[in-house]
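Re: that chain you flagged

S.,

Sorry for the slow reply, it's been a week of failed gels. I finally had a moment to sit down with the sequence you sent. For the record, here it is as I used it:
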Amino acid sequence: MTQQPSWVMVILRFLIALLVGVVLGRIVQTQFNLAALQSMGVEIPLGLRIVSTREDLIHFGPVYAVLFSVGFVLSQAAAMLISRWLGRGWLAPMCAGAGAIGLLITLLLVNQIAPMLTLIAATRETSGLLAMLVTAGIAGLLFGLLCRQATSSGGLRSFASMMLAVGGVGLAGYPHQAQAQSASAGDLPYYIETVAEGLEHPWSLSAQGGFDC
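Prediction finished late last night. Pasting the structure tokens below so you have them in one place:
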């Protein structure tokens, strides 16, 4: 008989898969950004590529982690609950597919409230979007494989229900966070100056003086 796993072990498995998804997603995003620069004739040696990837992970990884985690929580909870009906063998593929679908839905929702047309630059092209979804699928597959031996435990069912509740609260908070950011930005004095026109997908800005976004 399978021993019921502790909550600590279940949460640890989930956090490992979540971390893998965040790291892979940021790496893919960075490589697509660098590829876009290379297509414009910018030379990017291997050393600079490694440094850029590291800096992206450090500075933008936490932002992507918040974005990724809500959809991942909801998708994996749903996959675990559905796999109880389909059988133990379906847990890993269900978690993988749910991870990709969860990220896709999250990106679609966030793009509706983000100040720019597309928040994640890599997802503007089909190849980039598919690559990002694959990273979420890998994270889901890892979580499913780690938990497959414990699918008979009632603790996983309770954990899945808890994740659904937590993910629902986080998803409901997205619009409020966006509105708060817009309100804060609206309180700041600013002026509009056109510096370039005809750009199809502007995604970065560098100004003399060290400002970079």
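What I noticed first: The chain has one domain: 7-173.

Talk soon,
D.
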